[in-house]
């Protein structure tokens, strides 16, 4: 189900770019750079907030942040598409890798990197 949705989104994004003759600008390096820019715009919303403030955002601010998250997701999908990366499959694989690197019984309640507790 999720893979079908991802495929549909990627197709829609591809058509959006093609309809505007923007594919010429969507080399993987350009998309990766745009992704970093959008991630920076997302971080900007939190830059000077305390942890408590970042957890109690108003509805308008949450929507603005949601749009930045959407931009990050859009460029992630486009980059995966351009590189032929099966994102849903690799997300599943990465979760499995992280489960092995960070076994719950070893790391519960710790923010240490996996290399620090082995």
Could you list some keywords that capture this structure?
globular, 2 domains, Helix Hairpins, 118 residues
Q: How much beta, percentage-wise?
A: under 5%
Which sequence of SSEs, written as H and E, runs from N to C?
HHHHHH
Q: What would the average pLDDT be, to the nearest integer?
A: 95
**Morphology:** globular
- Poorly predicted runs are none
Brief synopsis:
The chain is mostly helical.
Descriptive account of the structure:
The protein is mainly alpha-helical. It has two domains: 83 residues, Helix Hairpins (Orthogonal Bundle), CATH 1.10.287.1080; 33 residues, no CATH class. It has six helices and no strands. The longest helix is centred in the middle third of the chain and has 25 residues. The model has no long low-confidence stretch (mean pLDDT 95).
Annotate the secondary structure layout.
Blueprint: H1 2-19, H2 28-44, H3 51-55, H4 59-83, H5 87-101, H6 104-107
Helix pairs in contact: 1-4, 2-4
């Amino acid at each position: 189900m999720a893979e079908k949705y991802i495929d549909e989104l990627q197709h829609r994004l591809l058509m959006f770019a093609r309809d505007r003759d923007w594919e010429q600008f969507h080399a993987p390096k350009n998309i990766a750079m745009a992704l970093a820019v959008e991630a920076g715009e997302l971080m900007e919303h939190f830059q000077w907030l305390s942890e408590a403030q970042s957890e109690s955002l108003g509805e308008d601010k949450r929507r603005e942040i949601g749009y930045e998250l959407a931009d990050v997701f859009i460029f992630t999908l486009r980059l995966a598409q351009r590189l032929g990366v099966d994102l849903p499959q690799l997300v599943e694989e990465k979760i499995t890798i992280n489960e092995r690197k960070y076994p719950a019984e070893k790391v519960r309640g710790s923010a240490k990197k996996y290399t620090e507790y082995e």
